[in-house]
UniProtKB/TrEMBL annotation:
Organism, as annotated: Corynebacterium timonense
Lipid bilayer topology: Multi-pass membrane protein
Any Pfam family the entry gives: SecD_SecF_C
The name this protein goes by in its record: Protein-export membrane protein SecF
Gene Ontology annotations for the cellular component aspect, listed alphabetically: plasma membrane
Transmembrane portions of the chain: 33-51, 158-175, 182-203, 209-230, 268-288, 294-320
Length: 380
C-alpha cells in the first residue's frame, strides 16, 4: 500500500472511531465541567436581565423613530440638533448599515406631530441630508410612530407566543421521548432561551418582533437536534440492563459521538445562509428587520448545537442514574470488569441459548416411506 493510501486510511479510521466509540470524545464524562459553564452563563444572563434589562424596540415600547441616509452626517451632531428642536433626549442614536446604505436612526419617546415637524425641519436646515439619489431634500428624513398602547399589545402577544411555544414543546417531547429524555430536553431548551436572552440584555442588543421570531426558530432547531441525539441514545441503550458490557453513560456518550459530525454539518450548513443574510442586511442594505433576524439565528444555531451535545446528554445521564435499576447496573458493570462476577458471561449466554431453533424434519420409517428433503436455515 502506498503512503498516500495509508494516509487516507488513517484519516478515515479517525472519523470511524467517532461512530464506533474507539478513541471517541468523552462528552458525558465531563458533565461537571458542562454544568459549571452552564451555571456561570445562567447566572450572568439572569443578572444581566435583572440589572441591565432589555433594550426593547419601538414596536414593544412605543415611541418615535426618525431616520435618514447617513452620508457624511455625524450622529452626535444630529442628536444635539434633535434635542434642541424637541426638548427630548433620544433613547438611542445610531448608524446602521455600511457604505452608501448607511442609515442614521434616532429613537425617542412618543413625540407629538409638532415636535416631529420641528425636528425634521431643524435637521434639514442644519445638516442638509441627501436621499438615496444624492438629492438634498426634506423628504430624505423619514419618521414613524408607535403608540404605547400598540406597543403594550405587541408585548403581550410576544409573551403569549413564547408561552405557547414552550407548552407545545413540552407536550411534544413528553409524547415523543422517554420521561428522562423529555426532562433533559426541556431543561436544555430553557437554558438555551435564558442564555440567548441574557446575551441580548448584557450587550444591549435590541429586542424586536423579528428577533422574537428568530428566537423561536432557533429554539426549535435546538430541540430538533436534541431529539436526533436522544433517538440514537434510545437505539444504543435498548436491552442495556440485560448486559454487563457497558453503562448507560457510555452508550449515551457513544450516541453523542455518532451524531457529532451530523450536528456539526447541519450547523455549518444552517449558518452559511445566515451569514450571507447578515452580509446583505448589515453591510450592503442596513435593513433592520433582516439584521435582527440574522443575528438571533446565528447566535441561536451556535448555542443550540452546543447545548444539544454538551448539556442535554449530560442531563439525561444524570436523571437516568438516579434510578435504582441503573445504579445497580453500573455497579454490576464495574464488578464484571474487575473480574468479581465470573458468571456474567454465562448469564448473558443464557439469553442467546434461549433463541428458537429450527430442526430438520425427520423422515418417516416403514415400507411405504418416501425420501424427504431436509431443510435448515442458511447461515447469516
Amino acid at each position: 500500500m502506498s503512503t498516500a493510501n495509508a494516509t487516507r486510511t488513517t484519516r478515515r479510521s479517525r472519523f470511524d472511531r467517532l461512530y464506533t466509540g474507539d478513541g471517541a470524545i468523552d462528552f458525558v464524562g465531563r458533565s461537571k465541567l458542562w454544568y459549571t459553564i452552564t451555571l456561570v452563563l445562567l447566572v450572568i444572563s439572569i443578572a444581566a436581565m435583572l440589572l441591565r434589562g432589555f433594550n426593547l424596540g419601538i414596536d414593544f415600547e412605543g415611541g418615535t423613530k426618525i431616520s435618514m441616509p447617513a452620508g457624511d452626517l455625524v450622529a452626535e451632531e444630529v442628536e444635539q440638533t434633535f434635542v434642541e428642536a424637541t426638548g427630548v433626549t433620544p433613547e438611542l442614536t445610531q448608524i446602521v448599515g455600511a457604505g452608501d446604505s448607511r442609515v442614521l436612526e434616532i429613537n425617542s419617546e412618543h413625540l407629538s406631530q409638532e415636535q416631529i415637524d420641528n425636528a425634521r425641519q431643524e435637521i434639514y436646515d442644519q445638516h442638509q441630508p441627501a436621499d438615496s439619489e444624492g438629492n438634498v431634500t426634506p423628504d430624505a428624513i423619514g419618521d414613524s410612530t408607535v403608540s404605547e398602547s400598540w406597543g403594550s399589545t405587541i408585548t403581550n402577544r410576544m409573551l403569549l407566543a413564547m408561552g405557547v411555544f414552550f407548552l407545545a414543546a413540552a407536550v411534544y417531547v413528553a409524547v415523543r421521548l422517554q420521561r428522562d429524555m423529555a426532562l433533559a430536553a426541556m431543561g436544555a431548551l430553557i437554558a438555551d432561551g435564558v442564555i440567548i436572552l441574557g446575551i441580548y440584555a448584557l450587550f444591549g442588543l435590541e429586542i424586536t418582533p423579528a428577533m422574537i421570531i428568530g428566537l423561536l426558530t432557533v429554539l426549535t432547531f435546538s430541540l430538533y437536534d436534541t431529539v436526533i441525539v436522544f433517538d440514537k441514545v434510545r437505539e444504543n441503550t435498548t436491552g442495556l440492563l440485560d448486559s454487563r458490557r457497558s453503562t448507560y453513560a457510555e452508550q449515551t456518550n457513544l450516541a453523542v459521538n455518532q451524531t457529532l459530525m451530523r450536528s456539526i454539518s447541519t450547523s455549518v450548513i444552517s449558518a452559511l445562509p445566515i451569514i450571507a443574510l447578515m452580509i446583505v442586511a448589515v453591510w450592503l442594505m442596513g435593513v433592520g428587520t433582516l439584521r435582527d433576524l440574522a443575528l438571533i439565528q446565528l447566535i441561536g444555531v451556535i448555542e443550540g448545537v452546543i447545548s444539544s451535545l454538551f448539556l442535554a446528554s449530560s442531563l439525561l445521564v444524570t436523571f437516568v442514574n438516579r434510578r435504582r435499576a441503573y445504579r445497580e447496573h453500573n455497579r454490576e458493570v464495574e464488578a464484571y470488569r474487575a473480574g468479581e462476577l465470573d458468571d456474567a458471561a454465562a448469564g448473558e449466554g443464557a439469553a442467546s441459548s434461549s433463541r428458537r431453533t429450527v430442526e430438520a424434519p425427520v423422515a418417516p420409517s416403514g415400507p411405504t416411506s418416501q425420501p424427504t428433503a431436509s431443510w435448515r436455515p442458511g447461515a447469516r
